[in-house]
């Protein structure tokens, strides 16, 4: 297995701006992410509407962005709730806008992106609380949103994959739980050590030092990292959670914990599909302009989400 040449180009582009993981200042990290957003080619797409809104969360107002693609024909519509990545420290509605637009069009379905609270201003369990509240708010407002409450999936990349898994776990006994979970190179064990974390500790965008940096902001206490609300892989049982698609990247420090989550889901009787993109690095999904595998991941994921929604194959 070798690193995809397009990922080499991606890392060069990141180096030009400055990786958000190469600073200890969360404000500077967020500035670098925003610069990458400003430099990127916008993903417009064909949308009936893209709306910004807010709801009252457990710690105050939570912003969201709702996407209705032009080709959306079902009413009420299936919906994906998306949680962005960024180590719980950076990332925003803007940074992951292209992913939300791409998956909304590819399925097609309505998408709501949740702008949860970030560390260090709001450490654990703030992001998890907002993520769960966002799911329950959508279910409560399903009729007003034109959403089919029985077909609400959750998804996210990296830290967002953590939150999607947490939501699936914590709401499995709700009157209407998620119907599916889409976990993209998820960070599901903040207490993990060794394995792929050591193998890809440096030189592949996400580094071991960067992981320590954001973990120390979000969950500085080791006991919190063992809490399933923080590390869903540490949950005693995943029985009854939503079926899942878990995608991993071949050169990602988080690869082993993603694969461990797949095995735990299977062991607990949860239907799960795992797809690895072998030449990829962590975070590649945002790079539609220069990484072909990002588009392939959207296509593969849309197929699985359509199946979960009971929609015809694309």
Q: How are the SSEs ordered, and which strands pair?
A:
Layout: H1 5-17, H2 26-39, E1 47-57, E2 60-69, E3 77-83, H3 97-106, E4 110-115, H4 126-140, H5 142-145, E5 147-157, H6 159-170, E6 181-184, H7 196-199, H8 208-218, H9 222-225, E7 244-251, H10 255-267, E8 272-281, H11 292-308
Helix pairs in contact: 3-11, 4-6
Defining traits:
Rossmann fold, 314 residues, alpha/beta
Describe this structure in words.
By secondary structure, the protein is of the alpha/beta class. It has a single domain, classed as Alpha/Beta hydrolase fold, catalytic domain (Rossmann fold, 3-Layer(aba) Sandwich). It contains eleven helices and eight strands. It has helices at 5-17, 26-39, 97-106, 126-140, 142-145, 159-170, 196-199, 208-218, 222-225, 255-267, 292-308; strands at residues 47-57, 60-69, 77-83, 110-115, 147-157, 181-184, 244-251, 272-281. An eight-stranded mixed β-sheet has the order 1-2-4-3-5-6-7-8, with helices on both faces.
Short description:
With 314 residues, the protein is an alpha/beta fold. The chain is built from eleven helices and eight strands.
The general outline is: globular
Structural class: alpha/beta
| Low-confidence runs of at least 5 consecutive residues | none
User: How are strands sequenced across the largest beta sheet?
Assistant: 1-2-4-3-5-6-7-8
Describe the main β-sheet briefly. Answer: 8 strands, mixed
Q: On the 0-100 scale, what is the average pLDDT?
A: 96
CATH superfamily: Alpha/Beta hydrolase fold, catalytic domain
The CATH level-2 architecture is identified as: 3-Layer(aba) Sandwich
Q: What's the N-to-C terminus distance?
A: 30 Å
How many DSSP helices?
11
Q: Helical proportion?
A: 25-40%
């Amino acid at each position: 297995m070798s690193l995809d040449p397009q990922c080499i180009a991606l890392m060069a582009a990141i180096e030009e701006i400055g990786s958000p993981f190469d600073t200890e200042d969360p404000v500077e990290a967020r500035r670098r992410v925003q610069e990458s957003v400003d430099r990127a080619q916008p993903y417009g797409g064909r949308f009936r509407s893209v709306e910004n809104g807010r709801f009252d969360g457990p710690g105050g107002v939570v912003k969201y962005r709702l996407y209705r693609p032009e080709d959306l024909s079902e009413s009420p519509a299936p919906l994906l709730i998306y949680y962005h990545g960024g180590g719980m420290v950076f990332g925003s509605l803007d940074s992951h806008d292209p992913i939300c637009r791409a998956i909304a069009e590819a399925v097609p379905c309505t998408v709501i992106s949740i702008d949860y609270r970030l560390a260090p201003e709001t450490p654990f369990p703030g992001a998890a609380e907002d993520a769960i509240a966002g799911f329950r708010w959508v279910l409560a407002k399903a009729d007003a949103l034109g959403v089919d409450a029985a077909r609400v999936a959750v998804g996210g990349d990296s830290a967002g994959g953590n939150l999607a898994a947490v939501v699936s776990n914590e709401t499995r006994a709700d009157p209407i739980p998620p119907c599916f979970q889409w976990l993209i190179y998820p960070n599901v064990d903040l207490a993990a050590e060794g394995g792929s974390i050591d193998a890809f500790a440096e030189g592949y965008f996400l580094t071991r030092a960067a992981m320590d940096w954001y973990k120390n902001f979000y969950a500085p206490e080791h006991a919190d990292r063992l809490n399933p609300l923080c590390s869903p892989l540490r949950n005693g049982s995943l029985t009854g959670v939503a079926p899942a698609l878990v995608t991993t990247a071949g050169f990602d420090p988080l690869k082993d914990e993603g694969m461990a989550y797949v095995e735990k889901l299977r062991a607990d009787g949860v239907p799960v599909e795992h797809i690895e993109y072998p030449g990829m690095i962590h975070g590649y999904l945002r790079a539609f302009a220069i990484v072909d595998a990002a588009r392939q991941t959207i296509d593969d994921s849309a197929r699985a989400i359509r199946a979960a929604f009971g929609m015809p194959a694309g």
